[in-house]
Amino acid sequence: MSLFFRALTRIDSDLNPQADLARSWQSLDSGRKWKFVIDPTARDHAGQPITPQRVAACLEQYRAGTPPSLARGGFPNWARTSADASSVTLEFSSPNPYIARDVTVLKFFQIQGESSPCTEPQPSSVVIGSGLYFPKTWALNPQNDMLALPTDKAKLPINFIFTMDENAKAIKLLRGEVDVAQNALSLTKTDWVAGTRSDQFRIIDRPGVPVSYLAFNFRDSILAQKEVRLAIAHAINRDEYIKTKLLGHGSKAGSFLSPFLEESAPSDFSYDPKLSERLLDAAGFPRKEDGIRLRFRYKATPSREGIDMALVFRSMLSKVGIELTVEIVEPAVFFSQIRKGNFQLFSGRWIGISDSSILYRTLHSKSPNNRVKYSNPEVDKLLDQSLSLVELRARRPVIAKVQQIMAGELPYFPLWFWTNTAIVRRDLKGLEDGKISLSGSLLPLTDLHW
Questions:
Q1: Residue ranges making up the domain that contains 184
Q2: In whole numbers, what is the pLDDT of the chain averaged over residues?
């Protein structure tokens, strides 16, 4: 999306907000207002100026358009948008220190024939974008690819090839039909390419911010007991999983926030099955005659990753007397049941984390994304306080305290961060090792050239 559409800001490879349609911005009224000065040279793909008035009209479509935009849910306190000759101002009913990053999801576009930008496109709509690239056509051709042509600010055209089958992806890569593949192959195939085709390809790795986690349902009377959650977490050998299943393409997580993020305050959590057994004994769950202490249901999707994780967790927890019944359900059913609270344990992955707003979304008792129904008045108070602190220096100790409490109470058990990997033909230049995005964005790949 970021290749074809611009927003007020963009996120760079290190997850810092940078100028895009807005060349500068500032917080006003303690974070309740954010003023963005629009680049006067900005143009869309039709050559029309992207003025502050057009940007404001676009943002109002996201805020109050019909049908409601899916992006609107990320801005619950957005009250109004206004424009003057050079800038756009977003106003909120309560402070929001994360706006400079959050607005990257509000992409600017125009539907041909519509008077207002950013109206809901229809299947037959002609979309006019605003980014570094524009597609030759929005319709996929019979070969399932999309040719992205560069504007005068980009270097080379990019042909995106869409292939679901992983073997087909690998074959296309080895035949020379594909020049770059980022996070496209399984870890085993990526290692195979690295080990056997190093003369053709270089592997660019960079630790990422996507984090996998184990979630506990607080509506369950047993899982609501902290000792049980801690016992489960201490029985999971994350080092072994990262080594044998992720093949080293990951790192243990001590928080939802990657160590690459300035607000991160990770806590160490050891693999200690003997401690798990002591915790379960103290909580009143001794081994029965069959050796079982507790039985839980664990929901997973039929993906290879999901099934592998479920089976490994089942084996690890069995060693401390916990029997895990794995329920494999289709993704649509999985997410529906998670939203309804119909689970005891499940694993998920958060992607695109660039700041501590993820903690508000997952831990605050009033947040709809708090699927585990965790409730702690102290955490709520700290999270509310964090929203009023626009300056990172002031917000950091408050967010550190939230992470400390999360590590102690464990509503979620952060498991590991995923590594981003790009497989690049050796004759391509322009992308230094380790300079792909922490988030997995494709934007850095546009620097490649022959």
A1: 133-206+424-447
A2: 94
pTM of the model: 0.90
Residues 290 and 385 in one domain: yes
Same domain, 76 and 44: yes
Both 408 and 318 in one domain: the answer is yes
pLDDT at res. 156 = 85
Tokens encoding 368: 């709809």
The C-alpha atoms of residue 49 and residue 396 are separated, in whole angstroms, by 39
Number of domains forming the structure of the chain = 3
Cα separation, 423 vs 200, whole angstroms: 10
Interior angle at CA 244, CA 238 and CA 250, nearest 5: 60
Query: Is pLDDT above 80 for 294?
Result: yes
The answer to the question of residue 3 being in a domain is no
Structure tokens at 323: 């029997």
**Residue 424 is inside which H or E element, if any?**
strand 412-425
Q: Could you report the per-residue pLDDT of 141-182, keeping only the tens digit for each?
A: 666 788 889 898 888 889 999 888 889 999 999 999 999 999
Residues 46-73 pLDDT 10s: 999 999 999 999 999 999 998 889 888 8
Residue 268 shares a structural domain with residue 299: yes
308 and 409 co-located in one domain: yes
- Asked if residue 141 and residue 93 are part of one domain, the reply reads no
One domain for residues 222 and 325: yes
Instruction: Assign 3-class secondary structure to 269-318.
Output: CCCCHHHHHHHHHHCCCCCCCCCCCEEEEEEECCCHHHHHHHHHHHHHHH
Dihedral angle, C-alpha 332, 336, 338, 343, nearest 10 °: -90
